Amino acid sequence: MRSDVLVVGGGLGGVAAALAAARAGRTVVLTEEFDWIGGQLTSQAVPPDEHSWVEQFGVTASYRALRDGIRDYYRRHYPLTERARARLELNPGGGWVSKLCHEPRVAVAVISAMLAPYRASGRLTVLQPYRPTAADTDGDRVTAVTLTHRDTGEKVHATASYVLDATETGDLLPLTGTEYVTGFESAADTGEPSAPQVAQPLNMQAVSVCFAMDHVDGDHTIDKPADYDFWRSYQPEVWGGPLLSWQYPHPRTLERVGHDFSPNPDDDPLAVNADQRVNPGNANLWTFRRIAARGTFTDGAYPSDITLVNWPMIDYLEGPVLDVPDAADHLRRARELSFAFLYWMQTEAPRPDGGTGFPGLRLRGDITGGTDGLAQAPYIREARRIKADYTVVEQDLSLAVRGERGAVRYPDSVGLGMYRIDLHPSTGGDNYIDVGCSPFEIPLGALIPQRIENLLPAGKNIGTTHITNGAYRVHPVEWNIGEAAGALAAFCLAHGTRPRAVRETPELLSAFQDQLTAAGVELRWPEITGY
After folding, report:
1. E strands in 253-384
2. Which of 379, 425, 469, 436 is nearest to 248 (CA)?
3. Pick from 169, 159, 155: which is nearest to 138 by CA?
4. Helices (H) and strands (E) in the chain, counts
5. What pLDDT, on the 0 to 100 scale, is given for residue 431?
6. How far apart are CA 408 and CA 128, in angstroms?
7. Strand 155-165 to 2-8 pairing
8. CA geometry: angle at 60 spanning 383 and 478, to 5°?
9. pTM higher than 0.85 for the full model?
């Protein structure tokens, strides 16, 4: 199979990359190993983590089209109340983590619609479910990628002028010999105030296998997981108590604090002010990542709210899931942890009335599309990262370091992002690192590998560090990275040039940035302060 651009990985970065290249008139092959495209928004079932100004500015036009499309889909197809239907900033779940908490299948439908005209014209081919298993190189170029069908083992030999790695864990980097790093860099290498003195390549953020659930009449308790007793007694050293509990360390103070859990509260979901700058929103875990609120829909449409479990209790800390021989076993055990937490909630969790257990909690695998009831894919917070021409470090964007100056302004900006530097507990035994962040830019240099000429990162595998990945890993930033990578590949083909030359040649860089701006990619923030 031959195309101008091969995008391996159909998460948010991969979709945005494919759209950008196809819009520029290039033929594109997009691959995805899971049943749904959309990555962390869909197959990983994570409602969008976004900054406080997302409704006004700070995301690309195509990402805004995705968000608008999700709201329009609800207005066209769901039995919304008239009050909800009239709400401009509709939040179907009334969740506190995001201004747009929604069911993942809706995002799948909208993303599919965005890709549809390019598939119909033959400009875009989508291969599912395929994963990369080998690659051919010639010097500093990738000449082909072997893609293998997840279920049948059928192989496709794909060649392209540009190969974009949009996989969740940077799978193409070792296959192509692209230089990369993993885990925690040392302070000696990066100068970061939060980094350790010695590099820790296997110290990576926890992965989580999310799941959706509601609360209805009856006993919906699952069978006791085989390893339940292990997880029931499991106490990470930094946790200060059992992992399976309503208590966990506060990300900013590290003090162990308790949280409420009250299914189906009689709240007004349209009154939720989902702004992480002013309220973390996790006082009641049920509403924190709620993706369907009964009060948003007509009476009787939903027998219960539906909430998405992506809470600290399912963070898997026992080992990394890449670059180790037992990675598959860690992924399996991460799924087991999620089942153990569900069983604990159903049978032993303290209730507000003084009792124990919520047997009415019902696993909603139909909502997440997973064959075992959980999300199809694990939520990957941290990938392999290229050794880039420019690496974004903590002192580029940390609010404590930068203060009123704001984040570093890069002359080669190809987009924007904003999120706290938010690192979950890690496989190396670290607790949370949660650092205030300035609104930041995405430098083109972070998308350019130091050696390989025609491979570009299109997701969480850009030139960030373990620390700055904590801010760059979220939904709109991943989309912006992918869109910039896809546009860059198309620009290089149109101008007969290379990515590094675009960065190093003022005329080319200006022309490329003008093209991004015309496509609705914002390159500079207004004067605002981070949080």
Report:
1. 256-258, 290-292, 306-309, 315-316, 361-363
2. 425
3. 159
4. 16, 21
5. 96
6. 39
7. parallel
8. 5
9. yes
Q: What is the dihedral sign for C-alpha 284, 288, 292, 294?
A: positive
pLDDT of residue 121: 98
Question: 41 pLDDT band (50/70/90 cuts)?
Answer: very high
The whole-number pLDDT of residue 161 equals: 98
Query: 181 and 463 in contact (C-beta within 8 Å)?
Result: no
Amino acid at the residue 486: G
Rg of the chain on CA atoms, in Å: 22
How far are the Cα atoms of 14, 28, 60, 120, 377 from residue 5, in angstroms, in the given order? 11, 5, 21, 17, 25
Residue 180 pLDDT:
98
| Cis amide bond preceding 129, omega within 30 | yes
- Type of residue found at 515: Q
Note the Cα 90 to chain centre separation in Å. Answer: 22
Beta strands in 252-310 (DSSP E): 256-258, 290-292, 306-309
Angle at 444 between CA 442 and CA 449, to 5 degrees: 120
Per the structure block, which two tokens stand in for 295? 């009060």
d(CA 366, CA 372): 10
Angle at the Cα of 8 (from 515 to 167), degrees rounded to 5? 100
Which residues fall within 8 angstroms of residue 113, CB to CB, at 6 or more apart? 69
Task: Provide long-range contacts, Cβ within 8 A and 24+ apart, for 427-430.
Answer: 427/202, 427/203, 427/204, 427/205, 427/206, 427/317, 427/318, 427/319, 427/320, 428/183, 428/184, 428/200, 428/202, 428/203, 428/204, 429/203, 429/236, 429/237, 429/238, 429/317, 430/184, 430/203, 430/238
Q: Are strands 207-208 and 315-316 parallel, antiparallel or unpaired?
A: antiparallel
CB 488 within 8 A of CB 447: yes
Block residue for tokens 């939903």: 302
490-517 per-position pLDDT tens digit: 999 999 999 999 999 999 999 999 999 9
Residue range 61-99, pLDDT digits in tens: 999 999 999 999 999 999 999 999 999 999 999 999 999
d(CA 429, CA 214): 33
Cα gap 214→234, rounded to integer Å: 26
Position 268 scores a pLDDT of 97
Could you tell me the pLDDT band of residue 339, with boundaries at 50, 70 and 90? very high
The 3-state DSSP class for residue 325 equals coil
> For residue 314, what is the DSSP state?
G
The residue behind tokens 């880039």 is 388
